[in-house]
Specification:
The structure is a single chain. With 158 residues, the chain is an alpha+beta fold. The protein starts with a strand and ends in a 5-residue tail after the last helix.
Length: 158
């Protein structure tokens, strides 16, 4: 299962999947570092919904390394759970970008209800191939315009 959608009223982009066995420890609980991988999945799917992939960015000479990450654990995900990663932009400029995330599990009793498992955020800087700061509006203006357009459409700050 893998679904992607965009909620324009909240700015959240989502992707859903089933927790794989290799993502868990012997107790069947998701290993804590895997949530960072899931944040990346949410972030890359958000960009894909805007019409760009990490491959597109990197082929254009734009890199997006993580400069900070923060996670708050509420409840563990377990093997075979269906989880949804919610991702949205919280800060955006030609030099920096930050994302907010929520990871939720579909509850077994009510498949329309979700349980909050993890919240968090990551901060990033736009760099060129030489790992020097790069202005996104100059390096990849199409992506810059796509992000600013989506934020305006969703009522976010640009």
């Amino acid at each position: 299962m893998n679904s992607r959608s965009r909620n324009l009223t909240s700015g959240w982009y989502t992707t859903s999947f089933r927790v794989r066995y290799q993502e868990t420890d012997q107790m069947g609980v998701v290993y804590h570092a895997n949530y960072l991988n899931w944040f990346e999945t949410g972030r890359t799917e958000l960009l894909r919904q805007l019409g760009f992939t990490y491959r597109d960015m990197e082929n254009s000479g734009v890199l997006l390394p993580v400069t900070s990450a923060d996670l708050q654990f509420k409840s563990p995900a377990r093997y075979d759970d269906i989880v949804t990663v919610y991702a949205r932009l919280t800060t955006f400029s030609a030099l920096r970008v930050a994302f907010e995330y929520e990871i939720r599990r579909l509850t077994e009793a009510d498949t329309t209800s979700e349980e909050l498992l993890v919240t968090g955020s990551t901060s990033h800087v736009w760099l060129n191939r030489d790992w020097k700061p790069a202005r996104l509006d100059r390096m990849l203006p199409e992506l810059f315009q796509a992000i600013t357009g989506a934020l305006r459409e969703e009522g976010g700050a640009v």
